[in-house]
Specification:
single chain, alpha/beta, 12 strands, binds S-adenosylmethionine, RNA-binding, S-adenosyl-L-methionine, RNA binding, methyltransferase
Length: 413
């Protein structure tokens, strides 16, 4: 069991890079740490993953033969910490003692010491290195879609820790020191703030939700009392927005664990929704809905700034299956709309097959379907596609910290 935040961060890196585990799947290995150390371990592991390529380039001249993965990860983490301005003495000492205490690789502590002392003597070792690139399977289609310059701008945003965005509950007043108001109405706070300590947490005046993600629900323009289905709802940021707008919300998701978080969020905010655990491919509603939000499962390639482990774990093989699932969910959901009802389809993907092409295919499968151009508050008209959908990219609002990548489209029939 890792005793320190650094040791736990190395264990997490070993799991991601050695076993292909997502950080969210190995959070359990931090359970024994105090909350502050838990948060620090997570922060360190994520920062190392954001700069792995640069760390390896800095280490290369000092290492003749690649050491075992856990020793390499100890070195990588130490390099990233040194570049981040941590005191060299502490970083080097802890990396050395971590290696020394390793039953299998203790003999390599001398190497770790020698290498890190050389790295510590370098001046700004990352300064001339470009931001870490996305893997080829993802970078190639993104370059083909958006061009090289945009992809580099996205990578520059992904190199930074993501800020914390709060969606405010309409009608509530809240003042949070250090927060910046964003054009859509979200509040932005620096990365790493402890949200449960902020004013308005206990009273449910806001909830954590990326500013781009917060643009989907307003596109439905729900009226108080309307029957609205939030399909694929957990953990529920969009459910809360719809309920706060006065809709009568049914929130459905197949994942019971994630739905617990939705239930907690409802309890904290005092908002109401009917919560259903079901597979949307089997479930059938009792009556049609006025509006449906389908936030479909996807490659999540728009969220790499929040999930830097994703490029190291995924290889794009699951995209085809996801595209088929999205189409199946979309077709079912369209059948549950009342005549004249509206549906917002969204994914946090940068890949056109999960966005623009998915909607083009739906329009050709359903001749009575129309794409209804709507611009949610805060969205720049330049972000609208020629067809009238919304394409949000991580490099938008880059000086303020960017946003998650999303595709959103409103359909009516
Ligand atoms: C992008 S996430 C939803 C995020 C959520 N809308 C929010 O704003 O917090 C996609 C969700 O789809 C759910 N899901 C995947 N396949 C499903 C299915 N067949 N039926 C219902 N939910 C499904 C996943 O459990 C996951 O919670």
């Amino acid at each position: 069991m890792a005793k320190t935040a650094r040791a736990a961060a190395v264990q997490m890196l070993d799991a991601v890079l050695g076993e292909g585990a997502l950080l969210s799947q190995v959070e359990g290995m931090l359970a024994h740490l105090a909350p502050a150390d838990r948060a620090r371990a997570q922060r360190l592991a994520m920062q190392a993953l954001r700069h792995l390529e640069q760390a390896d380039r800095v280490l290369k001249p000092f290492i003749r033969k690649a050491p075992p993965l856990t020793v390499l990860n100890t070195l990588r983490l130490a390099v990233v910490e040194l570049v981040g301005g941590e005191a060299a003495y502490g970083v080097v000492n802890e990396a050395v003692s971590l290696t020394r205490s390793d039953r299998h690789h203790g003999a390599l502590s001398g190497l770790v010491n020698a290498v890190l002392r050389k790295v510590a003597a370098l001046e700004a070792p990352f300064a001339k290195l470009p931001p870490q690139r996305m893997p080829y399977w993802l970078r190639k289609p993104l370059v083909d879609t958006y061009g090289r310059e945009v992809v580099s701008a996205i990578e520059a945003v992904q190199a930074q820790p993501a800020p914390v965005d709060l969606t405010l509950r309409p009608g509530r007043m809240v003042e949070i020191a250090g927060a910046t108001a964003l054009p859509g109405g979200s509040l932005r706070l620096p990365a790493g703030v402890q949200v449960s300590a902020l004013p308005g947490y206990d009273s449910g005046d806001w909830w954590v939700q990326d500013a781009a993600a917060a643009m989907a629900a307003p596109m439905l323009q729900v009226e108080p009392g309307e029957r609205v289905l939030d399909l694929c709802a957990a953990p529920g940021g969009k459910t809360l927005q719809l309920a706060a707008a006065g809709a009568q919300v049914t929130a459905l998701d197949v994942n019971e664990v994630r739905l617990h978080r939705l239930a907690e969020n409802l309890a904290r905010t005092g908002l109401e929704a009917e919560v259903i655990v079901a597979d949307a491919l089997d479930w059938v509603p009792d009556a049609p809905f006025d509006a449906i939000l389908l936030d479909a499962p996807c490659s999540a390639t728009g969220t790499i700034r929040r999930h830097p482990d994703l490029p190291f774990v995924k290889d794009g093989r699951e995209v085809e299956e996801l595209v088929a699932l999205q189409a199946a969910l979309l077709d079912r959901a369209l059948d549950w709309l009342r005549p004249g009802g509206r549906l917002v389809y969204c994914t946090c993907s940068l890949l056109p097959e999960e966005g623009e092409a998915q909607i083009a295919a739906a329009l050709s499968r359903h001749p009575d379907l129309r794409l209804d151009p709507v611009l949610p508050p805060g969205a720049d008209p330049a972000w609208q596609t020629p067809e009238g959908a919304l394409r949000l990219r991580p490099d938008y609002w880059a000086p303020q910290g960017g946003m998650d990548g999303f595709f959103m489209a409103r359909l009516t029939r």
